Structure formats: C-alpha cells, structure tokens
Amino acid sequence: MLVGIYAIVDPGLTERPLELLEALLAGGVRVVQYRAKAGVEREVVRAMHLRTRAQGAALIVNDDFEAALEADGWHAGQEDLVGRDVGELRRRLGGRLFGVSCGVAQEALVAAAFGADYVGTGPFAATTTKADAGPAIGAAGLRAVVAATRLPVVAIGGIDSANLDDVARSGARMAAVASAFARAADPQALAAELVMRWRAVAA
C-alpha cells in the first residue's frame, strides 16, 4: 500500500475536505493523511475513515495520536515524540501505520529503530504550506535519506506535476501532495494523472 501518491487533505487549504477526499479517492489515491494544524476534528476523522475504508484506502492522522486510533495510522513530527514512550505508542497503534517526519538520514535510522513503518522527508521543493518546513533538500537530499534507511520514504513539500518525475526517480516510495490538490480545478483528474505518471516513471 505504501507506494505512489500520498495525498494530504488539510482543512487549512480547502473549505470542503470531504469533497476533496472523495475526488482524490475517485482519482486512484489509496493513502490519505488528514492534517489539521488548527485541531483535528474526530467527526471529520470518522467521516473520512468511512470513505477511505469503502475504497480500500488507508487514512493516516497527523499529530493527534488518540484520533489516529480511529483511523489506519498516525504520522508524527519529531516534536510529537519528545518525552514520550515511543515503544508504548507503537504498541497501542497495533497494526496501524506509524510514520515519522525525518529531515536527515540519522533521524530516519532512529525512526526505524523504534518501529516506524515509513518516514516522511522534505521539503523536496520550496513550500508555503508548512511555515517551519525549512529549506528545500531537493533530489540529492532525498536520495541521501533513501540510501540510509530500509523504510519506505515519502517525499513531501512543494510536490506537483512539474517535479513529480524527479521525486519518482529518486528512489522514494511515495510522493506527498497537498496544496496542488487543494488548488486544482479538477482534483480528481489531477490525482488520476499523478497516479498514472508515478507508475510509469517509478516502475
């Protein structure tokens, strides 16, 4: 399942997150992260999970661990792990996916040691979606993380149709796309295009 396009649905980027989710699923996306920096709404998690489950897709919740227990996985930033018993968190997640944001190769090695299923790395390109994203690491930085870990790597940050091929050639297993979907006039068509292109280039 952890291959291809990893869509991020963020209410901060769209006023209709459920409609966007349905369009992305119809376009072939099978991994979706719900990211709500202003606060995760459990009702939205449940509504999203009904839709993803019906399509055989996975729903991952960003930051909010308890809400993630109502979905298929949790994605944590480095700050979300400080002072916490990561082993206990991994135990409570059970078979759910556990992803960790890693800016450098060493963080990816640590994530593997405490049981992460994948790592998110970036920003690949300049992005305004996340204020604290830091400078772009580009293809070279992404390849360095890919080479350092056995875990699937999800590239994130400023990824759209213009640079997707570069991400696919880097060795990353997935490409996370957020703002490009949110601002697309036809997100379903864009999702279908990106899913197809990833399969063609990364094969």
Can you give keywords for this protein?
42% helix, TIM Barrel, alpha/beta, 8-stranded parallel beta barrel, 203 residues, 17% strand, 8 strands, globular
**Shape by Cα distribution:** globular
Number of separate structural domains: 1
Radius of gyration: 15 Å
What percent of the residues sit in helical stretches (DSSP H or I)? 40-55%
Structural class: alpha/beta
Strand order of the largest sheet: 1-2-3-4-5-6-7-8
The CATH homologous superfamily is named Aldolase class I
What is the string of helix and strand elements?
EHEHEHEHHEHEHEHEHH
Q: Total helix count?
A: 10
In total, how many beta strands? Answer: 8
Q: Indicate the CATH class.
A: Alpha Beta
CATH architecture: Alpha-Beta Barrel
Largest sheet: 8 strands, parallel, barrel
Mean pLDDT: 94
Pick out the low-confidence regions. Answer: none
Question: What does the model show?
Answer:
The structure is a single chain. This protein has 203 residues and is of the alpha/beta class. The protein has a single domain, classed as TIM Barrel (Alpha-Beta Barrel). The chain contains 10 helices and 8 strands. Strands 1-2-3-4-5-6-7-8 form an 8-stranded parallel β-barrel, surrounded by 5 helices. The chain is globular, with a radius of gyration of 15 Å. The model has no long low-confidence stretch (mean pLDDT 94).
Could you provide a short overview of the structure?
The chain is built from ten helices and eight strands. By secondary structure, the protein is an alpha/beta fold. Helix 1 (17-26) packs parallel to helix 2 (42-54), helix 1 crosses helix 10 and helix 6 (105-113) packs parallel to helix 7.
